[in-house]
Specification:
18% of the residues lie in helices and 43% in strands. The chain has 208 residues and is of the alpha+beta class. The protein has one domain: Alpha-Beta Complex (Nucleoside Triphosphate Pyrophosphohydrolase), CATH 3.90.79. The longest helix is centred in the last third of the chain and has 15 residues. The chain is globular, with a radius of gyration of 17 Å.
């Protein structure tokens, strides 16, 4: 995604106030829209949640675990257009109608010279895809793993310090390697704890 791409910008009440380049959005700290889609699956009565491993070449948060598929909405895009992120990043064709919207959560992350104020349109996709179905966009995503949803929830509610993940990673020379390891919160993109907890609660409500 180019730094000069145009994004819609909003005030604190979520009213659109104009358009700005991606670089200015993050430099000046404008609220802007993003699309998040979390994949979950149920296998043998156990709910799993899928995570992407961000490419080590990413400018922001390289090599960390993140939302299954996510991205910025451009100034000429609607929330429905966000489904392109799923196809682009992880190679799964999903219709917007197959997604369940679980809310819009705003959150803010401030680092040196980087203010990320996001209005996150959050969706859930109940997937029946096998891990082999995922085709990754190498410059964005280097792996897909899954964890038990209950373990993931306990991690973010401080009920456990690490969880098991399993899946695959594509190495820099293009080889597919199996991932089976334990990870802690430091292995994840540092979204606010409150953000992870809100998402988990909303997914729980959908899973029943």
């Amino acid at each position: 995604m180019g730094e000069q791409e145009k994004l819609k910008i909003f005030d604190a009440d979520r009213n659109q106030i104009g358009v700005a380049s991606r670089s200015d959005v993050h430099r000046l700290g404008y609220w802007h829209e993003v699309f998040h889609c979390w994949f979950v699956s149920n296998e043998n009565g156990v709910n799993n949640i899928y995570l992407q491993l961000r490419s080590k070449n990413k400018k922001d948060y390289p090599n960390l675990l993140d939302i299954t598929a996510a991205g910025h909405l451009l100034s000429d895009e609607t929330v429905e257009d966000g489904v392109r992120e799923i196809k682009e990043e992880i190679g799964i064709d999903v219709a917007f109608d197959d997604l369940v919207q679980i809310g819009v959560i705003d959150y803010c992350v401030v680092k040196e010279n980087f203010i990320d104020k996001e209005l996150a349109n959050i969706f859930l996709y109940q997937s029946e895809n096998a891990l082999d179905d995922f085709t990754l966009q190498a410059e964005e995503v280097s792996g897909i793993v899954r964890a038990k949803f209950n373990d993931f929830a306990e991690l973010w509610f401080n009920e456990r310090d690490e969880i098991g993940i399993s899946g695959f990673e594509i190495t820099s020379d293009g080889n597919k390697v199996i991932v089976e390891e334990n990870v802690n919160r430091d292995h994840f993109v540092p979204h606010q704890m409150s953000f992870y907890r809100q998402v988990i609660q909303k997914i729980r409500e959908q899973l029943g």
